[in-house]
Amino acid sequence: MAIKGITIIEGSISTATSATQGFTDIYMVITSAAATGLNTVTSVKDVIDFASKFPATIDAVLQSVKLIFTNNPSARLSIVSGSDVSNVTTGDSKTKADLLFGINVVVNLASSALAIVICPQRSQLAAQADRTTIFSAIESLCTGKRWLFFANTSFDCATKLAAVTERSLYSSPNGNSSLYYGYALDNDNKLVPLAAAAASLLLLRTRVESAYDPPGGAKYPIAGIQSIVGDITQQSDYDDMKASNINVVQTIPTAGYCFWLARTLSSDPKFMMINSRMAMSIVSLQLERSLIPTLIDSVDPNGSTRREVVRICQSIMQQAYLNSALSGATPEEAYKIVETVIPVGGDLKKIQIQIFARFVGTLEQIEIQLINVDVIPS
Predict the structure, then answer these.
(1) b/e sequence 60-85, b meaning 16+ C-beta within 10 Å
(2) CA neighbor of 1 nearest in space, from 145, 149, 174
């Protein structure tokens, strides 16, 4: 929940700073025929716990939960089963209404943790207009909370052209949403959206390694699956998916099935990588929390308030640099802080800080030239 009075605007020691906290939770928005657990947040610890609390869900939901815990047994998963009792339609119309109601429950959630949202049923809706409506609602939710939304292409999206066409209908200016192509055939011989695995592996990797690492790579193959429906094998198809910012799975020797892109749906290069978006969300949240004690305090006696705000920002950005959230050989190359005091009427003051930062990105390509020569050049 945003703190009134503190505005963190994202664009292209006397007070301790708060500890760095990365993405820790997954919120799955679903619909269920169960009569209990509706329109509230329910934590589940494993697939057995989920099945006991939500016994009537479609396969895409149940298998997504199973895939999450198969890849990350300690994943923190919360279920929001939406139910719009005022909507008396049936079929996809009812599903869409219930999902929108559930999304609104998450919008009003007073959680301070950074999270990933997934919605397996969205890709099962037959009408593209319904899928777009749900996408837009979750994109708005995640933008407001600085969260991530991992979406899947539609269930009947079976070609590169169809994926690129569907992707053109979505946008995410600040990179809060990402799109995954294809489905996995799991060990139960059922199809499951790949976005669930990506969310699970992101939490696993950021817990084991760095809070700023992307979900993907050969070190974190997808567990619990037999094959990929929608496997991209041709280099030209991979290049087209990459150009459209659609994340895909590749079969990597000695590793298995791995996410081989980690992009958002932003067209802005500065927001195009998932871990760039993660780093900005983490730093923004830390700035907000750390600045709370300075608000509604004496304004600038002997300049101390202004110095304190700058000192907090400097401490957080230096910590982000040391934790590999920023790019640059030196702190001076990674960030710069500029501050001003702006009169807002009478003796009232507003301290404005501009932080220019180069956030971490993702290595996608390595080119090595192996040259056979007669004599090693000097």
Answers:
(1) bbbbbbbbbbbbbeebbbbbbbbbbe
(2) 145
Nearest to 362 by CA among 233, 197, 178: 178
CA distance 122 to 91: 13
Burial status of residue 94 (CB atoms within 10 A of its CB: 0-12, 13-18, 19 or more)? middle
pLDDT of residue 364: 79
The angle at the Cα of 121, spanning 247 to 65, to the nearest 5 degrees, equals 80
Query: Rounded to whole angstroms, how far apart are CA atoms 338 and 164?
Result: 41
CB atoms within 10 A of CB 298: 8
Distance between CA atoms of 171 and 162, rounded to whole angstroms? 17
Whole-structure pTM value: 0.91
Helix (H, G, I), strand (E, B) or coil at 203: helix
CB 273 within 8 A of CB 245: no
Q: Give the residue from 163, 99, 162 showing the smallest Cα distance to 136.
A: 99
Rounded Cα gap, residues 277 and 271, in angstroms: 6
* Extents of the domains making up the chain: 23-210+216-261
Encoded tokens for 282: 């983490």
The pLDDT-based confidence of 166 (bands split at 50, 70, 90) is: very high
250 in Cβ contact with 180 (< 8 Å): no
Q: Which CATH architecture has domain 23-210+216-261?
A: 3-Layer(aba) Sandwich (3.40)
Tens of pLDDT, residue by residue over 183-232, are 999 999 999 999 999 999 999 999 999 999 999 999 999 999 999 998 78
Using one digit for the tens of pLDDT, what is the confidence trace for 258-306? Answer: 999 999 999 999 999 999 999 999 999 999 999 988 887 776 667 777 8
Are 156 and 228 in contact, with CB atoms under 8 Å apart? no
What tokens does 82 get?
């939406």
Read off the tokens for 330. Answer: 């030196």
